[in-house]
Write a structure and sequence with these properties.
Elements (H helix, E strand, L loop, with lengths): L1 H25 L8 E7 L4 H16 L4 E7 L5 H12 L5 E5 L5 E3 L1 H8 L2 E4 L4 E3 L13 H17 L4 H9 L3 E3 H6 L5 E2 L3 H7 L4 E3 L5 E3 L7 E3 L4 H9 L2 H20 L5 H18 L5 H19 L5 H17 L10 H27 L14 E7 L4 E5 L2 E7 L9 E8 L2 E6 H9 L1
Parallel strand pairs: 1-2, 1-11, 2-3, 3-5, 4-6, 5-8, 14-16
Antiparallel strand pairs: 6-7, 9-10, 12-13, 12-15, 13-14, 15-16
């Protein structure tokens, strides 16, 4: 009885503690105690939009307290920016945009993304703004696009309770402000020198989620979990660069032209195919103009034509000019990504000169008599079979790889052969042992 009485008294003594603890536990936000982190470092592309959509979904489904975006971007594609803004405005988890590290900026599309966040923060030494829509090479766009963009950024700022007039000036006059001024003008909410101080300073703030619910942030001391991108997504992000795509396309086409001009080793052709494949991957994740694609095909055709009609480089020059216009049109998007003017001029010139030289090389090889260096005629020279294809061979003769065709018998890789003739760029060969047996007879 005494033991039972003590047990009852102990439970009674614990009841006040339980009544205090249960409400305290109930106050822990449903979104959890961790903060999910993702980074956007570079142009805003469709890959960035996919990354943000996945991150918002992961933060919501993973029961995180908030999604933290560390942002450093010069801007990017309007369509991708609008997709990211829609994901943030409709998110059922708090989204914090932090322009960092010092020296970073939220330019153009980055300004829209920052203003759309539930909490907008900047590190000292950063800036935000300069969101005027521009054409490919900096040309002004018509009033319709500017007015639409201004209305869009103003509506975002008003929805988040930020300064709509400064936001509108970012579009209308290209205004850009440093972090301290952005805070004073009510463009951003927090100026924080580090990630940890940011999470401490915003703890307890109330935000309104996409579903209309009000939520109090509980971020002080919250562990930060990084959102892991897949290898394929990281590769696409790296390749989603117009200048890189243009260089890959140009270099790949030039290497293919050289392989056609001097077939044999297949090294240039293999590298060219790889570069073209990477370029097509880049094009698949960027918004491209069909007119630019058609001009690109015309440029490649002209470079190949130079091989069959070499002279003063007319086809090569025309191909270089077509390549310039292809680059101009390929990624032409309002407020979007373009190719740097230096790349747009230098690369086509180099490719044009290279294709002209390839044409001269092909012409010399076709017209040259069957001689190879100081060793005299190739007829009678010996070599080794390196590769056997469906209709031709590759033989190594006098220090070079040649296409060849057997005149008699079956040859295998590693067989010693002797050159008995030549037709254009193709050697006629036979097994060396067979010739020796013929000599004995």
């Amino acid at each position: 009885m005494a033991l039972r009485r003590r047990l009852v008294l102990g439970i009674a003594a614990l009841l006040p503690v339980l009544f205090w603890a249960v409400p305290a536990l109930a106050q822990v936000p449903a979104e959890g105690r961790t903060v999910l982190l993702t980074r956007i470092d570079g142009p805003i592309t469709p890959v960035s939009a996919d990354q943000m959509a996945d991150a918002v979904s992961a933060a919501d489904q993973g029961n995180h307290a908030a999604l933290l975006i560390e942002l450093d971007t010069p801007g990017g594609l309007v369509s991708s920016m609008r997709s990211i803004v829609q994901d943030i405005l409709g998110a059922d988890v708090p989204v914090i945009v932090y322009v960092s590290p010092p020296g970073a900026h939220a330019g153009s599309a980055g300004a829209f993304i920052t203003l759309a966040s539930h909490v907008a923060a900047m590190a000292p030494g950063t800036n935000i703004g300069a969101a005027t829509p521009v054409g490919l090479q900096g040309g002004d766009l018509d009033d319709k696009i500017v007015n639409d963009t201004t209305a869009f950024i103003r509506s975002i700022a008003e929805q988040r309770g930020r300064n709509p007039d400064v936001a509108a000036d970012m579009v209308l006059v290209g205004r850009s402000v440093p972090a301290s001024e952005a805070l004073a003008l009510g463009v951003v909410d927090v100026l924080a020198p580090s990630q940890g101080e940011l999470l401490e300073s915003i703890d307890g703030r109330q935000v309104t989620l996409g579903n209309g619910a009000r939520l109090t942030l509980a971020t002080a001391g919250a562990p930060v979990v990084e959102f892991q991108l897949s290898f394929a997504r990281r590769l696409l992000q790296a390749l989603a660069n117009p200048e890189l795509a243009f260089i890959f396309l140009s270099a790949g086409a030039l290497l293919i032209v050289y392989e056609l001009a001097a077939p044999g080793g297949a090294i240039a052709g293999t590298i060219g195919v790889i570069l073209l494949a990477l370029a097509f991957v880049s094009l698949s994740v960027l918004e491209v103009n069909i007119a630019g694609v058609l001009l690109l095909a015309v440029a490649v055709g002209l470079f190949v034509a130079e091989l069959f009609a070499p002279g003063i480089g007319v086809f090569a020059g025309a191909g270089a000019l077509a390549l310039v216009f292809a680059g101009l049109l390929l990624f032409q998007q309002p407020n979007g990504l373009g190719i740097d003017l230096r790349v747009l001029v230098v690369i086509p010139i180099l490719v044009g000169v290279g294709s002209a030289l390839a044409g001269r090389l092909a012409w010399r090889l076709q017209k040259a008599p069957p001689y190879q260096g100081a060793g005299g005629t190739l007829v009678g020279a010996t070599g080794t079979v390196r590769r056997i294809g469906d209709h031709s061979l590759e033989v190594f003769v006098n220090g070079a790889l040649w296409r060849a065709r057997g005149t008699a018998g079956t040859l295998e890789v590693g067989d010693r052969v002797r050159v008995v003739g030549r037709e254009g760029l193709e050697l006629l060969v036979e097994r060396e042992g067979a010739r020796r047996e013929d000599l004995r007879r």
